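Example complex used in Figure S2.
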Amino acid sequence: MFKRPHYIALGLVVLLTLIVLNLPNHTASQLKLAIGSFFLPLFGLSKSVHQLRERGSDALVPRPTLLKENDQLRLTNQELLIRAMQGDATARENEQLRQLLGWQKQSSWKLKLANVIARDPGNWWHVIQIDAGSRDGISQDMPVVIATGTNAALVGRISAVGLASSQVSLIGNSDCKVAALVPATGDMGVVTGIASPLDNTLVTLSYLASNSNLKPGQMVFTSGEGKIFQKGIVIGQVAEDSHQAELGYTEARVKLAADLGKLEEVWVLIK
Amino acid sequence: MNWLNTILIFLVAFVAVFLESVFDGARNFLGAQIDLLPALMVYAALTASLMTMTTLAILGGLWFDSLSANPLGISVLPLFAAGYAIYLRREMILREQLYAQALLGLLASAMVPALTVLLLSMRREAPALGWGSIWQWLVMSVGGAVLTPVCFRLFDGLHHALNYRPMLENSFRADREIRRGRN
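Predicted assembly (454 residues):
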């Protein structure tokens, strides 16, 4: 039944698998990015087709609708400019007070817009690829957010960086745990994982104090613990009453503010 | 013919991995992304050489893992195992029959994710699994069963478009020509 070519094929596969799986982390991730870069022309093509389709649909929008939209955007722009001025003034005041108190200087963040070019083809990871890499100033562990109304909602963190593309681990993925704070009650916990593989809008907020009593609708923000995510980024809202979990902790389900299934553009917070 | 078949298989595998990562139709509608590589492994195991099938498992697995959070190389062994199991019995399989193609697609598409998750667990990785994963597994298996016959039709069409048509045999043979007349 087994002939020489069979042994060669079997040996080849087993040997190659063992070698690749046992490569050092850095080498494996570099190899992964190198193999993944073969797909870049196809991603470029896909992006161009998407842009062409968008331009085509834009050309069909009637002029009055465009003018109305333009007016609205102008108003929003003015409002945001005023808010930015207020923010700058507050930041200056904050800086002066920090100097007076002798506190450590806070580093400011820059933003980099990136397009989502791919999702994990498997069903057991919550990971996306974006079209910004080390040449755009992206590095490991940078927070990724999207704008929702006037707030920034947390999406995840950069988990691998290539030259022109990066991998983002979304909230709920096993390697993207987020320290969270519920300002209404002062409770702190950790977003540990998604509540169900079929619904990536619900995550589990674990390690809450045993006496915490969260109610639906309470906002959940990043607490700034852990140094990866700055304090005050919106994570979502408590979806149901908290309940006792194993080991004496309390858990709650949180409805994410960012719709992770429909991401097209994201912002990377560059330190 | 063989080289063309091999190149076409690799090309389709490459495009399939790309499409899986770009199009979210099945994921948004059914809650799971359907993997096209097991269906291709079934096709390769039934129609191509052992070396082509092995190379497909290696390349397909590496391409898939490069776009995924999977550790690089983890998908190679499950794909090869599915293809090799079919390859060993391929002389006894009615490969032209639709139900045989669908059944093999179902088995391969069920086996590959199960083996991959098993290998991930053995490496102490923490994939996002739960009760919903059973539904995802079913969708992947049934999706693979549907796509395998489609894969066979696709390759038939590609061969039809890219290969020379086989020359039909004529019953006329010059050495058997009956010469009539007096000479």
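Chain B is about 70% helix and 0% strand. Chain B has a mean pLDDT of 89.
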